[in-house]
Structures are given as structure tokens and as C-alpha cells.
Amino acid sequence: MPESDKNTLKFEITTTDAALLKELMKDAAADQGTTVTFGEGASLTLERHSRSRAWGQPEVIQFALHIGTTIAVPVIAGWISERLKDRKAKMKLNDQTVTSVTQQSIEFLIKQMTGIK
User: Fold this and answer.
1) Which candidate, 94, 44, 80, places its Cα nearest to that of 64?
2) Confidence of residue 69 (pLDDT cuts 50, 70, 90)
3) Residue-range domain boundaries for the chain
4) What does residue 52 show for φ and ψ, rounded to 5 degrees?
5) Which CATH superfamily includes the segment(s) 3-114?
6) Which of 32, 79, 102, 103 has the most CB atoms lying inside 10 A of its own CB?
7) pTM of the model
8) At CA 72, angle to CA 70 and CA 76, rounded to 5?
9) How far is CA 42 from CA 16, 38, 53, 76, 88, in A?
10) What DSSP assignment string belongs to 32-100?
11) Contacts of 84 (CB under 8 A, 6+ apart)
12) What tens digit of pLDDT does each residue of 2-25 get?
């Protein structure tokens, strides 16, 4: 990953929960390129959303997750874990499956992948 992109991660969710995308986008229009910003120096940009036409099949939602500051890491990790808690969803960061969707595990992976301390 180029130096300029080291704080931007690929964030992917596979889910059968139709309401999840709207919640993640903070009720904004879920169009490609829509960005949700966090005052702590983080943003989430919708890159792709593919929905299967077959009933009960999961949809795949892909985002660019930008972390601009150290303080943003626990904020965004907590926000993501709260949105995914108790939902039928699988998560990946930079193509690595997140097996434990907790604030601590997400925070650890973001720090490891970006080099933010």
C-alpha cells in the first residue's frame, strides 16, 4: 500500500441485515462515494454495495475507512463494534477476516495495519 494510503483501510461487511447499510451511513443516502465523517479524524466512504437478487442471500458492503489521527482509532473501533454487535454480519479489514468483532480486536487490527500507535 502506498505511503499516502497507509491510513486508509478496506472495510467489508457481508450481511443479510438489510437495515445495516442505512445505519452505517447514518441514514444518509447509500450511494457509491457517500462519506460519513467523524469529528475525531475518521471517515467511512461507501465504495461498493452488491445485493443478491436471491432471497436470503447476503449482501456485500465495501467501504474505505480512513483513520487520520490516533484518537480516532478507539472512536471508530467502538462505533463499528456497536453497529455490528448482535447482528448477522461478517467483517474484513484489508481482506483479513475479523473473527472477534469487539472494540478491542478492531482497534488492535486498525493500529497494526496503519502503524498508528
Assistant:
1) 44
2) confident
3) 3-114
4) -75, 145
5) LOR/SDH bifunctional enzyme, conserved domain (3.30.70.2690)
6) 79
7) 0.84
8) 140
9) 26, 5, 33, 7, 25
10) TT-EEEETTTEEEEEEEEE--SSTT--EEEEEEEEE-STTHHHHHHHHHHHHHTTSSEEEEETTEEESS
11) 13, 20, 91, 101
12) 344 789 999 999 998 888 988 888
Residue 4: what residue type? Answer: S
3-state SS class at 114: helix
Query: How far, in Å, CA of 7 to CA of 1, rounded?
Result: 10
And the C-alpha cell for 47?
Answer: 465504495
**Grid coordinates in use for 66?**
480512513
Give me the long-range contacts of 19-27 (CB less than 8 A, separation at least 24).
20/61, 20/83, 20/84, 20/87, 20/89, 21/46, 21/49, 21/59, 21/61, 23/83, 24/61, 24/63, 24/83
Mapping DSSP to helix (H, G, I), strand (E, B) and coil, where does residue 27 land? coil
C-alpha cell at position 57: 442471500
What is the distance between the alpha carbons of residues 96 and 80, in angstroms, rounded to a whole number?
16
**Residue 74: which of 111, 46, 37, 43 has the closest Cα?**
111
